[in-house]
Amino acid sequence: MTSPPNTMAQTADFEFSALSEATNYRRALLRDFDAYLQGNVLEVGAGIGQITSDLLRRPQIKKLISVEPDAAFCTRIREQFPEHDLLQGTVNELKSEFDWDAILSINVLEHIEEDEEELATYHRLLQPARGALCLFVPARPEIYAPIDKDFGHFRRYTRPALQKKLVGAGFELALFRYYNLVGYFAWWLSFCILKKRSFDVSAVRFFDKAIFPAVHSFESNIYAPPIGQSLIAIATAR
Q1: What are the extents of the domains in the chain?
Q2: Where residue 15 falls among pLDDT bands split at 50, 70, 90?
Q3: Cα(144)–Cα(192) distance, rounded to whole angstroms?
Q4: In the prediction, which pLDDT does 98 show?
Q5: Could you say which architecture CATH assigns to the domain 7-237?
Q6: Is the pLDDT of residue 129 over 60?
């Protein structure tokens, strides 16, 4: 059975107030997954509902169920979206007869110690409909910083290591690349060198509005970077 997320991941606030400023970042990420986010979609690790709110507005999503282990976060989601189908717990506790067309997991897998078991569970849920896992995780162990530990991250991923785990779980990769090269160096400077333990709201807002759109356009259309702050994957269940 897959272990629950790291306890720090269940209690830390994740600086949601600062990350709420990253609107361009969230929208771009969902656009990257857009073709696969349709039909019956399972959102793993809903947090306080920042991604959930975008998903609920998508007409191509027939059914959306969100899973979140943290009780306080679930309370906040229910206050915002009282009619939304939300499970407090993990995917192992999901009792649903849906055939899942997609599972969305954004900055979740790194919080789960037995990540290979978690990926195997995703594959089991997706296989009946040959659905797709839309996965986003922090990358590059060399920039694992004190703030990663504060956030409950067991790891940051390399591309070869994550590819091995995805293929081992039975997935085929439709999209797989590093994401946000500039963010890699910003993370290294802020959290590895300067040892900051929180996000700066104004810095997040500036990066999101002034830097990220150009970086994302370049990486998506011209040159996929050899390293990045994160890894993005779309993996289909064989």
Answers
A1: 7-237
A2: low
A3: 7
A4: 85
A5: 3-Layer(aba) Sandwich (3.40)
A6: yes
Q: What is the pTM of this model?
A: 0.93
Per-residue model confidence (pLDDT) at position 10 = 41
**Separation of alpha carbons 115 and 110, rounded Å:** 7
Full 3-state SS string of the chain: CCCCECHHHHHCCCCHHHHCCCHHHHHHHHHHHHHHCCEEEEEECCCCCHHHHHHHCCCCEEEEEEEECCHHHHHHHHHHCCCCEEEECCHHHCCCCCCCCEEEEECCHHHECCHHHHHHHHHHHHHHHCCEEEEEEEECHHHCCHHHHHCCCCCCECHHHHHHHHHHCCEEEEEEEEECHHHHHHHHHHHHHCCCCCCCHHHHHHHHHHHHHHHHHHHHHCCCCCCCCEEEEEEEEC
The pLDDT-based confidence of 35 (bands split at 50, 70, 90) is very high
Write the CB contacts of 66 (distance below 8 Å, at least 6 apart in sequence): 42, 43, 46, 49, 52, 77, 84, 85, 86, 87
